[in-house]
């Protein structure tokens, strides 16, 4: 296939729309099912690059959940414990393959944002992943291969309209990429920065203890930032993203957004949350939204009345002290920034979410202040020397 006509661009009035290769060659992907939108393609192509890089860096199956050209979550294939399975609404009888584990974690990072996501996985889609996806609200998936049985399950989603793309895993794009804005073409060298364990060798803090698990999580967070609309901040833990703050004009707002999401991820595993007794027949998205409201402090009286109708027994709210004590049990969260951290307030906020390992390019006039803040908290910070803006 050399060209694919898209029904419209970002919005219905933006016609015509198509995808094609400027050099006239065949497209490196196939449409196996559905009618992809312009935004589906934008999500799919960014998401595929992310999981391909994660797999290359960590040699583990990888997955990501994309929404509006930024990852809501990303992860590698680390097995799930019983607590996470329950927090992610995964039934006890569903056996999870490595690639299914990776996607369960990717979607579990921010289940509210992942509603209607576009998925990318680095490995063959097997029946385990297909069974997991069968009950989730999702727009489409891109992967290098599919089992026949898995493909049949996915083709039945969305009344047969689920978008399924197959990408050539060996495809390598040209070094120079371009885009048109307002009729003017701009071009640049494709972002070919390689992120691996060596990226984090320049430790600038007094504490220089960086265990293998922290390096893994910094790799997950930093590669995720490479495909997140900037400014962006990412928190990672246990092989997965737990909070991503994207597209903010101020870095502290990115940090607050990502940290708040990380806090919610941790609190979703609190015994009070796991013991909630919802009324029969509620969908997963309704339960996810209810948990999100439960963990918020700014819920209105009207929301409270509606929220209370969802439960067999209305749960008692978590106190501020209970939240802080629970978050403190998640030791060693990784925190990465796509550009230099300009003020120590970012470190102060990240520490409250139990971040202990920090990666950033460095290069701010206030680097000394940020390093001092990390030293005061006993945190480890690496200067990567690599800025990862993505627009």
CATH topology of the largest domain: Cytidine Deaminase, domain 2
Alpha-carbon distance between the termini?
28 Å
Strand residues, percent: 15-25%
> Domains counted in the coordinates: how many?
3
As laid out across the biggest beta sheet, the strand order is 3-8-7-6-4-5
CATH class of the largest domain: Alpha Beta
The helix-and-strand class reads alpha/beta
Q: What do the pLDDT scores average to?
A: 96
Give a quick account of the main beta sheet: strands, pairing sense, barrel closure: 6 strands, mixed
Q: State the helical fraction.
A: 25-40%
How many strand units?
17
Give structural attributes:
alpha/beta, Cytidine Deaminase, domain 2, Helix Hairpins, six-stranded mixed beta sheet, five-stranded mixed beta sheet
